[in-house]
Records
---
Amino acid sequence: MISARLLQIAMMIERKKVVFDVGSDHALLPSFLVENGICDKVYAGEIAEGPLNNVIETVHKRGLEGKVIPVFSDGLAKAEDDVDIVVIAGMGYHTIKHILDSCEVERYQYFLVQSNTDVDLLRRYISEQMYTIEDEKVVYDDFYYQVIRFSADLHEPYSEMEIKYGPILLQRRDEVFLAYLEDQLEKLKIINKRAKKAEYEEKIKEIEKIIV
Ligand code: SAM
């Protein structure tokens, strides 16, 4: 079974599309997509030799030849023309930004991005490019992770609140998002107790306003 984080990403992938998983490591997501009939073909991209060998081993062990396709590539540099959806997950913001800066975002139907760091910076980047955030989910998997679906469709820049907390998440206010905010609030209160700062207090008020 895959992690709750990867499962959330899998649930945001339209059936029967061709997916490119950037930085696939053990090819867990591509294998899951194919083995569960969600996709017939998934590219598992890797920039490093060790993880690429992990991909090749998984494909061989699970008999997924021709369905999960290992690609030695920095980001989408070697992506074929038939790719519909791109997944970039489990990396830091700066790596994700490098991958997005180096590709033609317009070529793809949509991206699913999950950054382990600076999700607000990632949303700011999406906003500055005038891309459209189409969906967002928070998933708990030992930590809270955010998965953002965006496309190159034109959108006016998002507000500061939308960049910080997510336009769709703010609109939907689902249970996991609110639990994530409660968690953030608790942590901020502890930090602020130890070292009082105006910026913490401002953020506490901001989150309290959303939760109410
Ligand atoms: N995507 C999987 C996940 O979410 O569980 C694996 C994440 S793993 C922590 C990050 C992987 O991204 C590493 O195997 C690394 O080699 C790969 N990676 C980092 N930069 C990359 C790039 N520019 N292009 C392709 N792969 C990259």
---
Amino acid sequence: MLTLGIETSCDETALAVYDPEHGIIAEAIYSQIDLHAMYGGVVPELASRDHCQKILPLLENNILNTVDIQDIQLIAYTAGPGLGGALLIGESFAQGLAIALNLPLIGVNHLEGHLQAPFLNQNEVRHPLLTLLVSGGHSMIIDVADLGQYTILGESRDDAVGEAFDKVAKLLDLRYPGGPEIEKLAQNGELGVFNFPIPLADKDTFDMSFSGLKTSVLYALQDIKTPSDQDKANIAIAFQEAATSALAKKVHKALTHTKRPLLVCTGGVAANKVLRSKLTEIAKNCAAEILFPELKHCTDNAAMIAYVGYLRRKEASRSFQSIVKSRWPLKTLSSIHG
Ligand code: KG4
Ligand code: ZN
């Protein structure tokens, strides 16, 4: 069953086709990064308009050049969480295609997409496991008993870690999205010149907090007044160290607590190499395996949406009511075993 996945929840217009026998057979993404860069974050209205303009050419030029539209049997689209207007563009496009091609469609939870992305290139979905989901909107430690059985053990009480990377990048005059920029700048930094405290790190909770960390960076910059490039690099490495250590500490605690045999890290911040190496070490110490999605499937993409749509294909329908939800907590999802 070839499944077309459609992702428009934020600032990436993405399409992909999943084939259960061969995996992802076509994939295209158009990033709006340049459109939003000057604003230091995503502008929802601009995002919706751009999705509207890019989605059809993306399908025609980058997907239908390798896949025959008549071979598609299911349409999966991100129905939430995300920017309301942007999600509606994806849903309307999915519905239009479903009507034209007489196909069933399914609205997929974007977070569940991130959770299952590591299994895209595996022969099987493996449960149970512990997942660290770290993106621009979420920082969560989730116990995954089975597909659809998600228990959130801990999450950020304020900013998501990706959001903190983005905000600190702005303070350092770096481009949006900040994560990759900070990682690059940190390579020139010296560890230990700055030390930022890690809120909640030693508290007896799996919850995390990142907004205080961002404020510490702000105060450090204010103290220096005119920071040199080296100061900025030293701050970048100190921030990255504090943020990734905060995540690693909580994951270690959760893995020790749950004793899950598999640790998965997914979401945009999972692209960070320092975080990857810290988590790899933790998994080794806890005798657990570790799995990351391919780099291109860490950040937003449609492959993960097509994949979850396929896994949940029994829930597909021919109803054309809007089910878009800006907020759609994981805990409200059902298990696929009913
Ligand atoms: O999953 P994603 O593409 O979109 C959301 O659903 O939020 O994640 C985007 C976030 C941004 O905050 C970006 O700065 C962060 O992931 N990110 C990184 C890295 N690459 C992307 N953070 C740290 N290090 C990176 N290499
Ligand atoms: Zn995402």
